[in-house]
Amino acid sequence: MGTEDPGADPEPKRADWTPKEVDALVRYLHRHRAERGDTGSFHQSTYANAADHIRPLLVSGKVKDHKNVSIKWGALKQTYNAIVTYRSKLGEHWDNERGANIGGALAAESWSKYVAANAQMKPFRNKGWEYLEFLEDIFPQG
């Protein structure tokens, strides 16, 4: 017997996201970017509508609700911020086709050290991120 409050909202279960669901979510939020608040988050109703939008794509696993969508959006923002931080570093290469475009032993060693402290960048050693332009529109710079 636990001492949990039976009336409390349970923590959302971890949701596995398929590439199609992630793609549909990013595109949905991009279309609704005017609903984004100052902190880069959306209203709960936008997350709920996004969850409804991606529901037909569910093949198996947990149906995503507004909480799962909000958590996934937070992870996408973290990836975006990691890329923005990396490419703002003086002398660091980034293009959205080849990512950091790491080649050669010295660059690989430097990259390994960077990724040790910035694990979100690991997938982008030699490839870009398909959602970068969408998030750049959602978070305009300047």
Automatic annotation (TrEMBL):
Protein name: Myb/SANT-like domain-containing protein
Organism of derivation: Pisolithus microcarpus 441
Top-level taxonomy: Eukaryota, Fungi, Dikarya, Basidiomycota, Agaricomycotina
